Amino acid sequence: MSELLLSSAAPLVEAYDLGLVDLDGVTYAGHDPIAHAADGLALARRAGMRLVFVTNNASREPGSVSDQLSSLGIPAASDDVMTAAQACATLLGDHVAPGSRVLVVGGAGLVTAVTEAGYVVVTSAEDQPAAVAQGFSPGLSWGDLAEAAYAVAGGAVHVASNLDLSLPTARGFAPGNGALVGAVSAATGVKPFSAGKPAPTMYAMAVARAGAERPLVIGDRLDTDLAGARAGGYPGFHVLTGVSSARDDVLAAPGERPHFIGADLRSLTLAHDAPVLGESGWWTCGASSARVVDGKLEVVVDEAEQDPVNVVRASCNAAWTFVDAGGVLQTESVPEFAV
């Protein structure tokens, strides 16, 4: 059965009681704010939706993250932030006993999380750590990665905060933690365990902390945020302000597909109509329609269309049902949508 877009007759902020909000690409890009993020989240809170900011970035303390959010007009406290560092420290417990030595390769946020989880933090493979906890930090050097490789080659369990290959910044995409973890893996031949998205660990932790009943994952990356939503059984809202594009939505594999799509965070305040299948295989959403014929995506946008995302929504259901039925979609027929 196809994993299609959902509908919500009520605005998303009313249909869901908790927003699990990603940071990079959703609320900010590097040190710069994302357009309409502060306004959209303020409206969400005003409508009664609680927010927890869930990030694969393990380099910073929750308080540092909340301070940055507050400086961008998104008031937040440290308890409103769930980091991959915290999830990484939790995942360590599946492999080594509390009190064990752990070589931390990462920033202050990871050091704090591992320490608070009851482990002894060391800085060298010569300290014979039972595990290596690796997270992103812009100050990491070749020497840091070498120590991690020495420890893992010596038998230490390798746990990564996340495997994101890229990191969005104000200047573009830079190497992420996954790229640095890959260097250690290439040197040792050992595949690490990962705590961050797309594993749903952080989502489950955040939902439990908030005591929420109807959580909604909000993210910009299909391969982490939305894949994590699918893996955890949570509905996912893809906001088109970061890494993954509207075209990526149409081409998404079942395990990475969003349940809702919006241009920016203001779309949280809107009801979302799911595309409807009509005659001749046309899927219609708003004043836009799409279908697949002989493997090619066809789209029609009426002049009356007010929401440019509707053509993306129609295209998603058209493409997904075709592919899930065994069809081969000609990717070159999928345009770069002007959203």
Automatic annotation (TrEMBL):
Show the GO MF annotations.
Answer: phosphatase activity
Write down the InterPro entries for this protein, in alphabetical order. HAD-like_sf, HAD-SF_hydro_IIA, HAD_sf
The record ties this protein, via Pfam families, to:
Hydrolase_6, Hydrolase_like
Signal: present as a keyword of the record? Answer: no
Q: Which UniProt keywords apply?
A: Hydrolase
- In its keyword annotation, does this UniProt entry include Nucleotidyltransferase? no
Any one GO CC term of the record: cytoplasm
What's the domain of life for this entry? Answer: Bacteria
Q: What is this protein called?
A: HAD superfamily hydrolase (TIGR01450 family)
The protein's organism comes out as: Sanguibacter antarcticus
